[in-house]
Recover the amino acids of this structure.
């Protein structure tokens, strides 16, 4: 029987096809079970565990083929967790002892272990908590009879489909294969929300704000969504289907402007470069597959993760950098010198107390200590080893060197001196690398304030908004208790970004943005409005960003940015942006034959 629902059309056009239903809701319902149902819940738990194991083994296999064994090892840890009696065993105990449903029992088991992890301040355990969260999430998903993840959801579908979801988070959007999705409908969302911007940038019809559409449409049901009127039909009549086909023919095929790679430009013709942030040399494949025009940030310190101290040797580093540079050539590769904190490395003897080396302790940078360029200057031998490796790799392609965590002109001058010394050392060995652009990350407020001075010392700037926001607002980006104060739209942050761009423009050097801010579809147009035209982000975000760029009118955004920069609160800025993006975007639609 046909049924009709009414929502808000946020991206025009009509789509018809089988429904793919994806529910990400995290809340878990607890319901009591009678003793007669215990066995059923226990066997459902066992089946879910078996499905998780299969899925994780498959994912491990895929990751290992795509990115190498090191990354695939993450899934070994998750597989081990599935065997741990504290997880599935504990959940089974709760089912049998407290007569509760399996899904809730799994969540309780997670909460119990997480509470223990939280009492220990150890970054390693914090990471394990993330894995545990993933594993228990997967168990719960399998208990609800769902498939293993957004991509897996599409695997069984022979034909393109209409995505019906409770909500679409950016991370899920980044994982989906949009060439197989005709349009989408969500419970959540409003005309001005992120999902609307996403739909327009992907150029697919969309209806949002349907409240319970994900519960009302059964998987596989035939649906029509009308992004012009906000209408959704379930099991449409043959007449309604014919009408859709006629409308699709009349309006021509919608092109997915967001999907193709290559150079991007705004509606008014401003060229925008989209580069990838990578952590490992294997990520180059992902960057290329996502159409990255270059590597805007290679976080080289990830070479040190996993306790392989030999990688810190010049030859080993050279091989890794060379591989990245060669694979990306002729595209640019920006390699950041190690952004580590001295406290993250421990000095340990190898054979004798006299022969000591630095070993990695943790894998992420700490706060405000002897970090980034400061560490490099304090440990010139480690720093110069890396600089020599970088200079040698520059012989094989288009490499730029970048120094992180710069807070003063003196630091840049000192680092440049060490680069010159490294070059001289190579010359003594008969190696003569080409000249290499030297850039700095602007991620500390003192650097942002003195950007016009620093611009005379550097060949390019990259704004690291992740750190710039945390140090400007005095909000630790890893501390959940203050996460609501981490505001990219804070007037101080926006003003600093404008100031950095002005400093760069005045001295005629390029400036890009490589923090998470650049990958947010709501913030990217604003950054373009601030005059920024180079961005680097995680490869998964590039498709959406490309679509956003091609829908953005830089001139309009410039006027919007000017207005936003007069506003005093984040709330006012957000309202201004949402109102602006809520206007119908029909005049920007792209139609083809
Ligand atoms: C940043 O600070 O914005 C940045 C890109 O660097 P990281 O996230 O590695 O600190
Ligand atoms: Mg940073």
């Amino acid at each position: 029987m046909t049924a009709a629902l009414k929502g808000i059309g946020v991206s025009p056009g009509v789509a018809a096809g089988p429904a793919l239903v994806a529910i990400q809701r995290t809340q878990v319902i607890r319901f009591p079970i009678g003793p007669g149902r215990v066995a059923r819940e226990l066997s459902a738990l066992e089946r879910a565990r078996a499905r998780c194991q299969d899925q994780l083994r498959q994912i491990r296999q895929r990751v290992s083929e795509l990115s190498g064994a090191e990354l695939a090892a993450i899934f070994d840890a998750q597989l081990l967790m599935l065997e741990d009696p504290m997880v599935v065993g504990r959940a089974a105990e709760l089912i049998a002892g407290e007569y509760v449903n399996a899904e809730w029992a799994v969540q309780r088991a997670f909460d119990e272990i997480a509470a223990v992890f939280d009492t220990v301040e150890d970054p390693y355990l914090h990471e394990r908590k993330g894995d545990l969260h993933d594993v228990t999430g997967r168990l719960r998903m399998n208990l609800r009879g769902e498939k293993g993840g957004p991509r897996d959801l599409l695997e069984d579908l022979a034909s393109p489909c209409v995505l019906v979801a409770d909500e679409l988070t950016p991370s899920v959007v980044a994982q989906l294969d949009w060439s197989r999705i005709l349009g989408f409908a969500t419970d959540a969302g409003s005309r001005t929300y992120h999902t609307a911007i996403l739909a327009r940038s992907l150029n697919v019809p969309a209806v949002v704000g349907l409240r319970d559409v994900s519960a009302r449409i059964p998987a596989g049901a035939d649906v029509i969504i009308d992004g012009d009127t906000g209408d959704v039909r379930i099991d449409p009549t043959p007449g309604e289907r014919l009408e859709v086909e006629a409308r699709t023919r009349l309006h021509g095929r919608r092109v997915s402007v967001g999907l193709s790679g290559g150079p991007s430009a705004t509606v008014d013709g401003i060229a925008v470069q989209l580069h990838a942030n990578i952590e490992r040399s294997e990520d180059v494949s992902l960057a290329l597959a996502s159409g990255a025009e270059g590597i805007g940030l290679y976080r080289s310190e990830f070479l040190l993760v996993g306790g392989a101290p030999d990688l810190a040797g010049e030859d080993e580093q050279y091989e890794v950098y060379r591989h990245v540079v060669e694979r990306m050539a002729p595209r640019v590769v920006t390699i950041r010198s190690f952004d580590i904190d001295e406290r993250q490395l421990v000095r340990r003897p190898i054979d004798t107390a006299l022969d000591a080396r630095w070993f990695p302790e943790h894998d992420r940078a700490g706060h405000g200590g002897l970090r980034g360029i400061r560490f490099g200057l304090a440990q010139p031998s480690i720093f110069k080893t890396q600089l020599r490796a970088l200079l040698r790799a520059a012989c094989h392609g288009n490499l730029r060197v970048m120094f992180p965590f710069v807070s003063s002109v003196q630091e840049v001058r000192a680092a440049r001196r060490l680069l010159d010394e490294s070059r001289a050392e190579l010359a003594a060995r008969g190696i003569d690398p080409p000249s290499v652009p030297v850039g700095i990350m602007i991620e500390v407020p003192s650097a942002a304030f003195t950007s016009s001075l620093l611009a005379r010392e550097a060949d390019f700037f990259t704004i690291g908004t992740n750190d710039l926001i945390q140090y400007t607002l005095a909000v630790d980006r890893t501390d959940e208790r203050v996460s609501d104060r981490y505001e990219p739209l804070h007037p101080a942050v926006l003003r600093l970004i404008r100031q950095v761009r002005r400093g760069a423009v005045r001295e005629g050097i390029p400036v890009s943005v490589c923090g998470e801010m650049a990958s947010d579809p709501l913030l990217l147009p604003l950054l373009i409005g601030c005059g920024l035209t180079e961005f680097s982000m995680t490869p998964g975000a590039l498709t959406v960003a490309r679509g956003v760029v091609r829908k953005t009118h830089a001139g309009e955004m410039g006027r919007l940015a000017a207005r936003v920069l007069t506003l005093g609160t984040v709330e006012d800025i957000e309202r201004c942006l949402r109102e602006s993006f809520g206007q119908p975007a029909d005049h920007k639609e792209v139609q083809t034959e």
The mean pLDDT is 83. The radius of gyration is 26 Å.
